[in-house]
Amino acid sequence: MKTTPDIIVNIEVLTRYLAGEATPEEAMAVDDWRMASAENTALFAQLSRAWEVAGENNYQQPDLTASWQQFLQQPVMTVPPLRKRTFSLYKIAAAAIFLIAALVAGVLLFRHPVARLPQQVVVHTAHQMDTTVLPDQTTVVLCPQTSISHPPVFNSAAREVTMNGKAFFEVTSQVQHPFRISLGDIILEVIGTTFEVNNTATDSLITVSVVTGAVKLYSKKDTLLVRAAQTGTYNKIRKQFESMEGVNLNALAYATRSFDFNNLTLQEVAGYLESAYQVKIHFQQAATGQCRLSAAFDQQSLTYILDIIAATMGITYTIAGNQVDISGNGCN
Prior knowledge:
This protein has helices at 11-19, 24-35, 38-53, 64-72, 89-111, 253-256, 266-277, 302-313, and strands at residues 121-124, 130-133, 139-142, 147-150, 159-170, 179-183, 186-190, 194-199, 205-212, 214-218, 223-227, 230-235, 240-245, 258-265, 280-283, 292-298, 316-320, 323-327. It is an alpha+beta fold. It has 3 domains: 11-111, no CATH class; 121-247, Jelly Rolls, CATH 2.60.120; 251-327, Phage tail protein beta-alpha-beta fold. Strands 1, 2, 3, 4, 5, 6, 7, 8, 9, 10, 11, 12 and 13 form a 13-stranded mixed beta sheet that branches. The chain has a 3-stranded mixed beta sheet with strand order 15-18-17, covered by helices on one side. The protein is elongated.
């Protein structure tokens, strides 16, 4: 596709020509190349159709007379006559396909540039809890001082996120796309389940409490399978895994709103209610906090729970903003 030692008819020159932005020298070089052979003429026609398909206006033929006059004002250049080249039909077809594809792609990218998606979406909580939904519809309840980062779209074989702090996950089941959480030295992998992860920077342990399903924790040296109603830990200092039976469901109530108070002191109950409802509970009489309660609540409001406690214990309470004051002289 060479016309002169100085002007090479390539995809860039052809694009400028079809857009009406070619210099007079380039326009004449393209016209010379186009008329040099029937093959070139046919190829140019295909490129013109590709340009039209891409949504451009039809190219207006340059005024060659004016172009020539303008060209004469430039420094004289020697343009040797074109050498006719012969190509096999296969080579012509291959070249045409390549040029058309390149031209269409170039036009579309130039005229309609693809908006770059952010590399990571970061959600960070300060002093309040927050709930976020990931691109796969996985729900995450983040405790205060917690952050999670993830791509705007899960488009790889695995759904991968990074998390610091404490959060409760309800992972959407996608068997072909495991869900992985990067927790520093270890990775948590799951297909679909509900669990809490506590990866607080100031704590030497990473704790995973599994409510349903199962998760796998693995480091460079070891792995640990944690099933429903089990708690798994990773010691950051000793770099060791441990597991134990049982999950403290009350500690997860900030996400599940399910409580099972089994002979707990009201002071202990107050701690779980504070975490779940983001309030501060104050006992006017310290002895009231030592009264014990056995009761279960599921998806109930704070006022409903306090009403039941007040009726059971013979106490009273008031709420002002996020402050709860409890007063009473004994335990009934």
